[in-house]
């Protein structure tokens, strides 16, 4: 049974910008710190590893290309050696982690980056990843679109965990899909906190908590919690006043990394935050009864639903260069002659041999 009480944390910390090793070291230190505070889940900001590309609209195309190559070299992939280091730190700290990261594709032949959340269990094992389904505006020149199959939830000892990235938290149907998957704890990752001046395309970095009056993030996170009856750990990026080595202040002209992390109960009550203008490990304690009490009044997956009136179609597709049933997986599928030879050697039906070969090939794409 999930725990009746638990502690959530938002690691609102500055990465060592564009530096994989430096960011890895700092990440492990904060995971250790969270473990010492008996945190059960710690969430890191959007593309915290190794930093959000605040330069995305402020540099020339040649400079953009150089920075993209640098970002590729310093991002994580699921088979990166850094994953073992992270796993060991998480295992030692005995907590769950949702890590916002620039993810380098693990598909053979690809160097595409994705805006992702990596989910780790208490043993440091990677439970899965979510790739942002639709990068926002100029972000589409940085990251690819995520696979539909990455919209998923994970079972933990605290309950069912899911998450969304930045403006995905405004997307009605993915939000509904996670609720339908039984999401109880929601990791929301953001690139900062802002003052909005009339519309989403006109925003500036938040200077104080007064920004809650115009920042769409503040009501969105409270409404996400209430409408889905989830515990929400919203973690927002923070960067200090010092310009990172190798950059100029003008190049980071879209720096909105003011922090703004919040921890919210299922009634939409902000129990900690927003933390503005400083680095910190924001924590709050929660009881499952906070969710039960809200659901007694408004249960989105029970008495307050009308699936006969409105229903949802969710894809579990993983995007692939090969069509279903294709046998052209870089020559790795078994030839008919080889399949016949194996079938005769082990005295099993040739259909079984071909099915296993296809399954292995699909998993290696």
Summarize the structure.
Keywords: Hydrolase. Helix content is 28%, strand content 23%. It is of the alpha/beta class.
Question: Strands across the major sheet, in which order?
Answer: 5-4-3-2-1-14
The second-level CATH architecture of the largest domain is 4-Layer Sandwich
Number of strands: 14
Report mean pLDDT, rounded to a whole number: 93
The N- to C-terminal Cα distance equals: 37 Å
Could you explain the architecture of this structure?
By secondary structure, the chain is α/β, with parallel strands linked by helices. It has two domains: 5-297, Carbon-nitrogen hydrolase (Nitrilase/N-carbamoyl-D-aminoacid amidohydrolase, 4-Layer Sandwich); 320-365, no CATH class. The chain is 28% helix and 23% strand. It has eight helices and 14 strands. It has helices at 20-36, 61-74, 81-93, 172-180, 217-228, 288-297, 336-346, 350-364, and strands at residues 5-12, 41-43, 96-104, 113-120, 126-131, 154-156, 159-165, 185-190, 194-196, 203-205, 231-236, 259-264, 270-276, 280-287. A six-stranded mixed beta sheet has the order 5-4-3-2-1-14. A six-stranded mixed beta sheet has the order 6-7-8-11-12-13, with helices on one face. A two-stranded antiparallel ribbon has the order 9-10. Strand 12 (259-264) and strand 13 form a beta hairpin. Helix 1 packs parallel to helix 3. The longest helix has 17 residues, at 20-36. The model is unreliable at 327-332 (pLDDT under 50).
